[in-house]
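Can't attach files on this board, so I'm pasting raw text. These are the components:
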Amino acid sequence: MTLPPARKFDTLVIGAGGGGLRAALQLAQADASVAVVSKVFPIRSHTVAAQGGINAALANVLPDNWHWHMYDTIKGSDYLGDQDAIEYMCRAASNIVIELEHAGVPFSRLPDGRIYQRRFGGQSQNFGGEQAARACAAADRTGHAILHTLYQQNIRARTHFFDEYFAVDLIRDEQGYILGVLALEIETGEPLLIEAKTTLIATGGAGQLFRTNTNARINTGDGMAMALRAGIPLQDMEFFQFHPTGIAGKGMLISEGVRGEGGFLVNKDGERFMERYAPHAKDLASRDVVSRAIYTEVAEGRGCGAQGDHVFLKLDHLGEETVAARLPAIRELARTFLHIDPAHTPIPVYPTAHYTMGGIPTDRHGRVVVPAGQGEEAIPGLYAVGECACVSVHGANRLGGNSLLDIVVFGRAAGNDIIEYLRENRFHRPLNVASVEQALGRLARWERQGEGETVDGLRRELQQIMEQHCGVFRSQAVLEQGLDKVVQVQQRLANAVLRDHSRVFNTARIEALELENLVELALATVTSALGRTESRGAHSRVDHPQRDDERWLRHTLFFREGRTLDYKPVRMKPMTVESFAPKERTY
Amino acid sequence: MHSEPETRNSKLRQLRWRCRRGMLELDILLEGFLQHGYEALDGGQRADFERLLALPDQELLEYLLGTRTSTEGSLAHVIACIRNTSVF
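---
Top answer:
C-alpha cells for the assembled complex are below.
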C-alpha cells in the first residue's frame, strides 16, 4: 500500500485553542520545530467563546490569596479534583496572568491601573466566607484576547500551522510510543502523515454530544475519541457541566456576568427560587446547583411560558441605562435570537450542555497516563491539555473562570515537559506502517457507495438521546435505555454512506468522521454515568441522590475495548499544604 | 478540470466550512444565511461576504449582533442582510 506524503517535526500540537497555542509557544521559543494542526483557522477556536475571565488571586478588588482559590476549586469540584494539580494551578495563576499581560493581553483596568477583577459564582474569601472577585477580564472578550495574543506570538516564533487539516488518528508503534498523526487536508481531501517525537492533544470539549448546548459546532471531541481508539481510557466522562442559563430551546449562553451584575432567576409565580436552594449564594451558587434548581422548578410545574418549560432571568429591574452600559452584548444577543429587549422583558432560560470535565487522563505536566501495576505510567511522547484532558482540576464540576486558567497553566507546563522529553529523545522513531494503514482504513470506509442512512440524521438522533438519557438528572433505567440507543446508533453509523464523494472541501466527510468521534464519546459518557451510583457535582442520580465518599471518592476510567470501567483514587494530597477533607457542599 | 457546477459546489462547501467558527452564535447566524440568503447576493456582495468571513470571531459577532457598526458601506449591507435573515 502507498503511504501518504509525510512531514517531520520535533513536536506536534493537535488543536489551536489557548491550550495548544500556549504549549506551542513554549516549544517554539525553545527552538523546537513545532507543527500545529487545526481543523479551522486557529483564531476560530472555541477559546474565543470564553468571554468572562481568567481566575487569579491578585487581590486587586477584594482581599484574596491562592489558597482560598484552591479551596473554592476543590469544593467546586465536589472533592473529585486532584489536590496536587489544583494547588499547582492556583499557585501559578497570578504569575500566568501577569505573563499574559506582558505578552499583550489588554486586561480591563481599575482607575489606579491595576487589572480589574470580576465576581463569579463559587468564589469566596477566607475558605467559604464572603464573595471574592477573582476573574481577570479583558472586557467581554477575554478568550479572544488571549487566543489572538498567543497566535501572534506563535507566528513570531515561527510555529508551523496546518490550517484546515483534520486529525484522523494517532500513529503509534508496538512499544506504545506515539509517533504523530494521520491528518486530512480539508481543501484537497488528501491525507498527510505528520511524524513527531511528541504529540500534544488540545482539541477541546465535546458539547456537540447534546442537542441543546453552548458550544461551537467544531466541539466534537476529536482528540478524546482518538485517544480511545489508541487504547487510552477516558477519565470521569460522566461529569458534563450544564450551564444554568442557556437561551431556552436554543442553547446560547447567557453569561454568569448577568447574575453578577444583579440579574436573578424567577419561576412562574415570580418567586426568586434560588433563595430556597442556596440561601447564602443565591443566584451566584455553583453552576451545577443552579442548573438542578431550574430543572426542579420546571419538573415540579413552576416553569414559565405556555409549555412551562423554562424559567426567567430578570434584569429589567436594573434599569435600561445599566443594561445598556454593563451588558450590551447580552442585550443584543437576546434581541437577535429572541427578538426581545431584556431591559424590559425577562429572558427565558434553561440549562444547556457547556463543558466536558472528563477527558484524557494526565498528570500535572500534561503527560497522558494510564494504569500500570498498582499505579500509572506515562504514554511515551503523548500529552494532552485543556478541555480534552482530565488533569483533574475541575473534578465533578468546573468553576467559572477556571477554564482559561487551566489551558494556559497546563499548556505551559506541558510545553516545559516536552522540552525535557525532547532532550532525552533526540531522534524520530521508525514509522509503524500497520498503524498508518489502520488510520487510513478509517478514511477508506467513507468511500463506500450505495444506500444507507445519512450522517446528519444520525447526529441529530444521538444528540437527542444524550439530552433525554444523560442530562441534568439521571437514573439507572433511563441511562440503560440511553446506552441501548447509543449502541444502536453506533451500529447504524457503520452502515451510513456519504451522498457526496468529491474530494475538494468535502465537509460531509469531515462531519462523518466527527460523528464517529461523538458516538465513541457518547458510549464513554453513558457507560461511566451508569457506573457511578452516587450524586456528585454535575452527575446527579435520582436513584442515588447522596454523595458517597466511602465508595466513590475515585476517578472513573472508561476503556473502549469491551466498554469496561476501572477506577483510580483521587489525589487528595496537595503539593505543600494540608489536604482539604470532603465536607458537605453548601452555597 | 472541474466542471462548472462542481466548481460552484466546491465553493459553497468551502464557504460552509468557513462558516464554522469558534462560537455557536456565529455558526447559527452564518450557516443560516448561507442556506437562506447567500444565493440572493450578487457577485460583489458575495465577495463582501467572504471578506466578512475572514474577520476574527469577536469582531464578526459584534457586527452581527449590532453592537458595532461597519464604516464600510458594502460590508454594512451584507451584515444587514445576515441580520435580516431570521431563520432561528
